[in-house]
């Protein structure tokens, strides 16, 4: 019983730390007003890396042993643990999926940043790709994500125009 209580304390500490990571990941991002679309890809890559690391840790043999001991002891702390495990898995899958879809836009980021204001040749393909993401992505097709992406694409177009005007 003493061992079980110690292990429950450890799992409760992990639970608190994981909840903090999940809460922080859902907070509104603070970004510069003129950040471009490549920042969106970098954000999701960073998030994917964080959640994949967390999943690796949760699925380590050390953690599995502790969880199996608590299962055998029928610990009540496992209900919260299973819920968090599911939340982390969903967050990791979302980040991985969003990175995969945003990489399809990556080929447009360079031309968008380096083109002259006559960048119209890239816009139809870019919009078709954004439409494909919206129509097929199970996670990225929200109003919030699309607004953020369009804002960053627009920022990049404005920055490109400013650069062109200042150099010309």
From TrEMBL:
Pfam families: DHC_N1
GO CC annotations on file: axonemal dynein complex
GO BP, sorted A to Z: microtubule-based movement
GO-annotated molecular function: dynein intermediate chain binding; dynein light intermediate chain binding
Domain Dynein heavy chain tail: 5-166
InterPro entries in the cross-refs: DHC, Dynein_heavy_tail
Name the record gives this protein: DYH5 protein
Species assigned in the record: Prunella himalayana
């Amino acid at each position: 019983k003493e061992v079980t209580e110690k292990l429950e304390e450890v799992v409760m500490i992990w639970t608190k730390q994981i909840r903090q990571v999940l809460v922080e990941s859902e907070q509104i991002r603070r970004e510069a007003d003129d950040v471009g679309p490549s920042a969106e890809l970098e954000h999701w890559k960073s998030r994917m890396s964080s959640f994949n690391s967390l999943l690796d840790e949760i699925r380590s043999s050390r953690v599995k042993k502790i969880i199996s001991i608590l299962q055998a002891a029928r610990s009540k702390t496992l209900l919260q643990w299973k819920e968090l495990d599911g939340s982390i898995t969903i967050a990791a899958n979302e980040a991985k999926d969003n990175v995969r879809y945003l990489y399809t836009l990556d080929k447009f980021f360079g031309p968008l940043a380096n083109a002259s204001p006559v960048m119209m040749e890239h816009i139809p393909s870019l919009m078709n790709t954004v439409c494909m993401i919206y129509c097929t992505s199970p996670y990225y097709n929200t109003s919030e994500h699309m607004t953020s992406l369009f804002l960053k694409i627009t920022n990049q177009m404005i920055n490109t125009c400013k650069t062109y005007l200042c150099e010309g």
